[in-house]
Specification:
- The structure holds 2 protein chains of 2 kinds.
- By secondary structure, chain A is of the alpha/beta class.
- Chain A has 2 domains: about 1-125 and about 270-295, Rossmann fold (3-Layer(aba) Sandwich), CATH 3.40.50; about 130-270, Response regulator (Rossmann fold, 3-Layer(aba) Sandwich).
- Chain A is built from 10 helices and 12 strands.
- In chain A, helix 2 crosses helix 10, helix 5 (about 130-145) crosses helix 6 and helix 7 (about 200-210) packs across helix 8 (about 225-235).
- Chain B has 12 helices and 6 strands.
- In chain B, helix 2 (about 75-100) packs across helix 7 (about 235-245), helix 4 packs antiparallel against helix 5 and helix 10 (about 290-300) crosses helix 11 (about 315-335).
- The chains are: A alpha/beta, B mainly alpha.
- Chains A and B meet through strand 7, helix 7, helix 8 and helix 9 of A and helix 2, helix 9 and helix 11 of B.
Chain lengths: ~325, ~375
């Protein structure tokens, strides 16, 4: 009797495997706003597809736990695995675990250290960080040119210096300056870190204002710092129409600041799009189709002209 | 040198005993805070000199010609403004350290309290649209400002009571008890909205962080607690427990109860800091207040508060916080990289403790 039941269960399972895709997902952590949007983008997309089941687990920012989850996925015979790595330098072991079992693996959002040596049935889906700072800086340049500010004096506010995105976005500004893609000449007065934080940015901006240096624009690595700087400028009675302020992230607070006419430029990273893209890649690999090993979901420029398209997207 | 400078002013009796301790004030040369003040003046002098040499600008004085004031008032304001919120925490931390304890939880308590208080301070409508960052729902919007303030104060107070009770009645070391609270409170601040920011407070809630309000609150609290520590029984007991807990107990001080009180006051001050911080930034976020506890401890230590307890004053901590503010503004003024700022900050903290140890040894051996 017992054998019969077990056999029946096994048969059901096997038949369901035959025309359904089981995908295991290990997220770095659940309680992060951006990653939550990404995760929801993935599961919402899965619901629109026939026979695709997701099993999403929370690695709670623990490298060891994440590797255990991947091994468990492999052991339970999933068709593909999606990993949002806790630590991008610890991805080698994950690649090996999936490769030796022949299970396709897709890394999402955070670039694995072994991205250039991934086996054929593994891929990486994210946004190209280089785009964010470039889009931001070009739009700031365009607005400065529109106002006839040439040369333009700018302050740069950087995120945490140990963080790749901060380094990259700051480099983007300088690359745009060098490439000649900026219609005006940017003169950097000073660049300092405010550690992604609104509070530190307020203080930094006020410190800058106390030097009574004239400036035309502030280019910030993220929206939070741009908002802090705006608050400091308003407290010092600076007319926000005279200053161009740019940020990155398109957070709700930033969109409100843009609607109020304070923030001029921000850049949207499509978290849900990354979630959808990673599932697409995983399903293709599971069917044995080939995909690009680096899939980039484009960043999108947000300005007062198209702000309404983004109000409900994160 | 006296063992407990800062407890009694020059005008206090020549000798006085608490818990069998005797202070001899006749040998004192000048108050301890004087050393810290001199350090502050020297640091300001260095920035003034470097400013003239490197930037051709004055650090302290008005060289813009935009107004006719003598000083660069904007810079003076930001020097105090940027340390006033951590300064409020440091007032509580100073009392904890004087009582012989330590409080590692204040930064996380600020984060959790800011999140919870801000949830009750949100506007219903932003630019005519529903607030996109609602934490609790429409019922918790546009409430009278007393609601988030009372909730914020209670949160800080509650965290402080738990800290104090754990330390006083389970006898676990303050380091461990407040470390536990540090981790727990940070967990609460992340859990509250699953990491989402809470923004757009009501007009009335914006008052506490507007303009120089954080400075006024900091200064008022500093004066209040400086006087309390110096002239009340509460203050005398705090110093007595920090100097020699057993002796304090023998002399009839209810040590356990007093510790709960000290940590509760520190927790409440963290609650106040959270309200001011979230009001100033018009947002509350799960990561707010990270590392504030260490900055607050550093301000106290630089200000001459001894980590072994029993010595120091709020005035010293306030001067310590100003040293912090001057360094941050000075480095931005000189346009030096942030890396150096952190390195120098670290160096100053260590130097302050080394000096303090050296001073104590000299006092102990009667040099």
């Amino acid at each position: 009797m017992r054998k019969l039941i077990l056999g029946a269960i096994a048969a059901t399972l096997m038949s369901s495997v035959a025309h359904a895709e089981n995908v295991g997902v290990s997220m770095a952590l659940f309680d992060d706003n951006f990653l939550t949007v990404l995760r929801n983008g993935m599961s919402d997309y899965a619901k629109t597809l026939d026979g695709v089941t997701l099993q999403i687990e929370d690695a709670q920012n623990d490298v060891a736990k994440q590797l255990d989850q991947i091994n468990n996925f492999v052991a339970s015979g999933v068709d593909a695995i999606i990993v949002n790595p806790v630590d991008t330098s610890a991805t080698e072991a994950m690649t090996k675990a999936a490769e030796s079992a022949g299970v396709p693996l897709v890394f999402v959002n955070r670039e694995p250290i072994n991205v250039d040596t991934l086996p054929d049935n593994q891929a990486f889906v994210a946004s190209n960080e280089q785009e964010s700072g470039t889009l931001e800086t070009k739009e700031v340049c365009r607005l400065l040119a529109e106002k006839g500010k040439n040369p333009a004096r700018v302050y740069i506010m950087m995120g945490e210096l140990s963080n790749q995105a901060a380094v990259m976005r700051t480099q983007d500004i300088k690359d745009v300056m060098k490439s000649g893609e900026c219609q005006v000449e940017l003169q950097i007065i000073d660049e300092q870190t405010a550690n992604w934080s609104r509070d530190e940015a307020q203080d930094l901006m006020t410190n800058w204002l106390s030097t009574s240096e004239k400036f035309d624009a502030l280019i910030s690595n993220n929206d939070e710092m741009a908002i802090g700087a705006i608050q400091a400028m308003k407290a010092a009675n600076i007319n926000m129409d005279d200053v161009i302020v740019g940020g990155v992230d398109a957070t709700q607070d930033a969109l409100a600041a843009m609607a109020a006419g304070d923030l001029d430029v921000t850049v949207f990273q499509d978290a849900a799009g990354q979630g959808k893209g990673s599932l697409d890649a995983a399903l293709k690999l599971a069917k044995g189709e080939s995909v690009d090993q680096k899939v980039y979901i484009p960043f999108q420029l947000v300005t007062p002209a198209n702000i309404d398209d983004y109000k409900s997207r994160n | 040198m006296p063992q407990h400078p800062g407890v009694y002013g020059m005008a206090t009796p020549q000798t006085h005993g608490v818990g069998g301790l005797t202070f001899d004030t006749s040998k004192r040369r000048w108050p301890n805070e004087m050393n810290v003040l001199i350090a502050l003046v020297i640091i300001v002098g260095i920035f003034e000199l470097l400013g003239q040499l490197m930037m051709g600008q004055s650090f302290l004085f008005n060289s813009s010609g935009r107004s006719d004031s003598i000083f660069n008032e904007q810079r003076l304001r930001i020097i105090v403004l940027q340390v006033s919120i951590v300064g409020i925490i440091a007032i509580g931390v100073t009392q904890v350290i004087i009582s012989g304890g330590i409080d590692l939880s204040s930064g996380s308590v600020v984060g959790a309290t800011a999140m919870i208080a801000m949830s009750f301070a949100q506007m219903g409508l932003v630019n005519g649209n529903p607030n996109p960052t609602l934490a609790l729902g429409p019922w918790a919007t546009d409430l009278p400002v007393i609601v988030p303030v009372a909730i914020g104060l209670s949160c800080g107070l509650f965290a402080g009571v738990i800290n104090g009770a754990l330390i006083a009645y389970t006898r676990i070391p303050p380091f461990i008890a407040t470390l536990g609270m540090m981790v727990t409170a940070r967990g609460i601040s992340k859990w509250w909205t699953a990491g989402k920011p809470i923004s757009f407070p009501t007009e009335s809630y914006r008052v506490f962080g507007d303009g120089l309000m954080p400075v006024f609150i900091f200064v008022a609290l500093a004066i209040l607690f400086h006087l309390i520590l110096r002239y009340t029984v509460y203050g005398k007991h705090t110093y007595a427990i920090g100097s020699n807990e057993d002796a304090a107990r023998m002399s009839g001080i209810k040590v356990g109860r007093h510790k709960v009180l000290v940590y509760t006051i520190a927790g409440m001050l963290a609650g106040i800091a959270a309200i001011v911080l979230s009001s100033k930034n018009l947002t509350a976020q799960a990561g707010m207040g990270t590392m504030y506890e260490l900055d607050a401890i550093a301000m106290a230590v630089i200000g001459g508060v001894s980590l072994s307890g029993g010595r120091g004053s709020i005035l010293g901590t306030v001067i310590g916080s100003l040293i912090f503010g001057v360094i941050i503004s000075g480095f931005t003024f000189l346009r030096l990289d942030a890396y150096y700022q952190e390195m120098v900050k670290g160096g100053i903290i260590v130097a302050a403790v080394v000096l303090d140890q050296w001073r104590q040894r000299r006092a102990a051996y009667g040099a």
